[in-house]
Amino acid sequence: MTDTAAQTERTLVLVKPDAVERGLTGEILRRVEAKGYRLVAAELRTADDALLAAHYAEHEGKPFYAPLVDFMRSGPVLAVVAEGQRVIEGFRALAGTTDPTGAAPGTIRGDLGRDWGLAVQQNLVHGSDSPESAAREIGLWFPGL
Ligand code: UDP
């Protein structure tokens, strides 16, 4: 099973600090690989303010921005690049909707996440939402890849 090179796409997946803290990295990567996507790069790191400001630039000024950045630098994140045909759309389907309370059972957020009564939705994972976002985000987290 190899993808046609011209159709292969890449996405940035972040296993967020809540998922790392809860020991869910293996379960999340298992789901990505079981779907048939290939892992191209992975690194456990604690993100700094500059990286998070660039990553979440589109959300600057929103009420959840400061709690989101605080949460994302509260512990290590597993940054992953996954590859496969339509992986951007496919990983977002695996992840489920942003709010984990209403995310469909069968999805990462639906099966493993919930509302913890916090100012930010701790929803376990991030996945790029378009080819342009994927290229930008992969460049931020894995310069030179
Ligand atoms: N978020 C939040 N409250 C909101 C919207 C978003 O706490 O009302 C957080 C949540 O962790 C989300 C992240 O901000 O994953 C980025 O939001 P986006 O709309 O890009 O959601 P995603 O693409 O991650 O589902």
UniProtKB/TrEMBL annotation:
GO terms for molecular function: ATP binding; metal ion binding; nucleoside diphosphate kinase activity. The active site is at residue 126. Keywords: ATP-binding, Cytoplasm, Kinase, Magnesium, Metal-binding, Nucleotide metabolism, Nucleotide-binding, Phosphoprotein, Transferase. It catalyses: a ribonucleoside 5'-diphosphate + ATP = a ribonucleoside 5'-triphosphate + ADP; a 2'-deoxyribonucleoside 5'-diphosphate + ATP = a 2'-deoxyribonucleoside 5'-triphosphate + ADP. It comes from the Bacteria. PROSITE patterns: NDPK, NDPK_LIKE. GO terms for biological process: CTP biosynthetic process; GTP biosynthetic process; UTP biosynthetic process. ATP binds at residues 16, 64, 92, 98, 109, 123. SMART domains: NDK (SM00562). Its cofactor is Mg(2+). Gene3D superfamilies: Nucleoside diphosphate kinase-like domain. It is found in: Cytoplasm. Its EC number is 2.7.4.6. Major role in the synthesis of nucleoside triphosphates other than ATP. The ATP gamma phosphate is transferred to the NDP beta phosphate via a ping-pong mechanism, using a phosphorylated active-site intermediate. Belongs to the NDK family. This is Nucleoside diphosphate kinase. The lineage of its organism: Bacteria, Bacillati, Actinomycetota, Actinomycetes, Micrococcales.
